[in-house]
Amino acid sequence: MSDVVVVGGGVIGLMSAWQLAEAGLSVTLVERGRCAREASWAGGGIVSPLYPWRYSAPVSALSALSEEVYPGLCDELRETTGVDPQFSRHGLLYLAVEDADAARRWARCQAKPLEDIDADAIRRMEPALADTHWVRQGQGGLWMPTLGSLRNPRLGRALRARLERHPGVELREGCEVTGFKAVAGQIQGVDTAAGVLTASRVLVCGGAWSGALLKHLGVGMAVAPVKGQMMVLRPAPGTPRPLSRVVLADGRYLIPRRDGRILVGSTLEHQGFDKRTTSEARVSLYRSAVRLLPALARASIEHHWAGLRPGSPGGIPFIGEVPGCRGLHVNAGHFRNGLVLAPAAARLGVELMLGRTPCVDPAPYRIQREEPAGPVSTPGSMSVAGLAQSTAGNWC
Questions:
Q1: Cut 0.90: pTM above it
Q2: DSSP string of 359-393?
């Protein structure tokens, strides 16, 4: 018997298990596949919401804490496991920003450096963008110099390696949770294909599958899968390194890798648990990449994949104990920002489990026993105007 069973081995589950074990608890982490191979693997690795001013205060609070943690966390993981998550602060260049005034207000409120940049400065910063549609027309953009990014598959491998070496953690991969054990409103453990795992506390970090898992206990939680397709492009042989910073326009982004490849993302699709890639997305992503960076017209598509984000109302995660079931905790529904929010979200969840003073006000993340039925509304599915209206004035 363990003190805690953590269900789900994505970055949220891995970081939560690590923090619980560091607090002296015995932890069994159960993952139906292999750790960090779902949404944690499939994302782009940008350590910030793409348009942070379009999110509400609860998301901003966790994001700000996590951004402070990531540089030191990645250094520690590199030194202790030998796996380098390749964290860097190359910044992000925004083009075609419709709500630039809202972005500037957010930056002032959050004390974040966000600079207006004209077309000439963009050409000097990234010469390959000189042929980009917006720059050719003389349009400028916004420049966020402190934004960081990392290789999320490497982060997942590093976290897994760290837990493998921790005496307080047992990893059980290839072990699917099929139900929960609860008696008189108290959690007793989980059912798995390999038998029952008993524990006085269970933490569900199942990503897009969390809502379906909790239905076994009659708990309705508005977490639904939102598919995202991405690609990685290999520039033509002999092509100079085309890009050194993350570039974002019209919701599509390019992320340069150290090896010269360019990652392009991503789609937002409500297709249930279907992770198949489509020819339509392949064409759309490639066209977006070339529109952003015409030099990629001769690039080849090296890999095309899809992942499932855990969509939630407003993109605000559910963190805390489930009402009516003592010892059952949830940390899920981070939508596009699981990687972004992971260090702070895991910390908050562990603090609530252990009765410690929470790092942020936990009220916005509380789980209701019954969530309203209907489609999940996320920032990614709202219009720019709707986003500006829904978040205006919520940052200070």
A1: yes
A2: SS--GGGPPPSBPPPSPPP-GGGS-HHHHHHHHTT
